[in-house]
Amino acid sequence: MSSPLAERPTLRMVAKEAGVSVATVSYVLSGRHRSHTIKDSTADRVREAASRLGYRRNDAARAIRTGKSDLVLLSLTVLADPWSQAVAATVSTAVTPFGKTALIVADGDWRTVLANRTPDAIFIDSVPDPSQAEELAAFASQGVQIVAFSETLEPRGFDVIRSGAEPRCHLAVQHLLERHDHIGALTSRTTGFARFDAYVNTLRAAGKPVHSDDVEVFEQHPEGAYRAAMALLSRPDRPTALYCTTDFAAIAAVRAAHRLRIDVPRDLAIIGVGNTPEGEHLDPALSTVGPVGFNEALARIIVGRLTDREGAPGEVFDFPWQLIVRESS
Fold first, then answer.
1. What gap in Å lies between CA 10 and CA 56, rounded to an integer?
2. How far from each other are the two terminal CA atoms of the chain, in whole angstroms?
3. Domains and CATH numbers, the chain
4. How much is the average pLDDT of 317-328?
5. Which letter does DSSP use for residue 296 in this model?
6. Global pTM?
7. What are phi and psi of 148, to 5 degrees?
8. Over the stretch 49-61, which tens digit does the pLDDT of each residue have?
9. Which member of 4, 92, 235, 283 has the lowest number of beta carbons within 10 Å of its beta carbon?
10. What 3-state DSSP class applies to 74?
């Protein structure tokens, strides 16, 4: 009796079954066939042959042989944020033709994940502690291609994305001040947070008081933002304009206003932060501050790290935010 190992289907067997080359089978089953102009009909024939034979790719053996895991990790702090969802969808679409799989790291816990596995690349959406630069540099020296979002880090074998977000958040509050004297805020935290500081500093610079009753702190998910918006907008002396430190909080505020039969923007102006696709397609379309075309640009940077810029010393990429006025304000 032959051993199970001897009976295990191989790439060569799949190629013979499908009537194509071994290289074609490899490209199709690794997801790289589109970058090699292989016809969809041929790819379908290869997959059908692999299914008939019961072929399964040995990823562990491939990783040992090539030094590649074919994984691109996305360390996203708030998974329920539409911005995070849009990033995940765009990056996943971009890396799939290169045989890579994009996986989300829950709660932004990139340190634990990198200590236990070595992805080909990782995007980190928040590095609040500058001292973590040493860890990032160490992981980069081990061959991990890193793209980190930070206003303070300097590249050390990894790429850094900057946005200049805080000044643009000031523009959002100034925009509301053009027509409103009573401006409230929805924020995830009030201390050490540049987006909330922009609210306080801009009001004070305009000679406007900052009242604690005009501020609600929400938990870091849409449901928490909705509850905070309902609490703030249900007050007898509610604000006539609302600055929200994320787009998902602003979207929740629009929904809360609808529930309370408050017309947006006639009775309440709302502006968010982030420029997410969901905000743009909201009714009314959400005013916001944020980068334009960021997700596509991020995907190009990550693909570059996987191809021609693999192992590069690291660069700073600036994506200045801008005020985007739409129907909600």
1. 9
2. 76
3. 4-57 (1.10.260), 69-163+293-319 (3.40.50.2300), 165-290 (3.40.50.2300)
4. 92
5. H
6. 0.72
7. -120, 140
8. 888 887 766 555 5
9. 4
10. strand
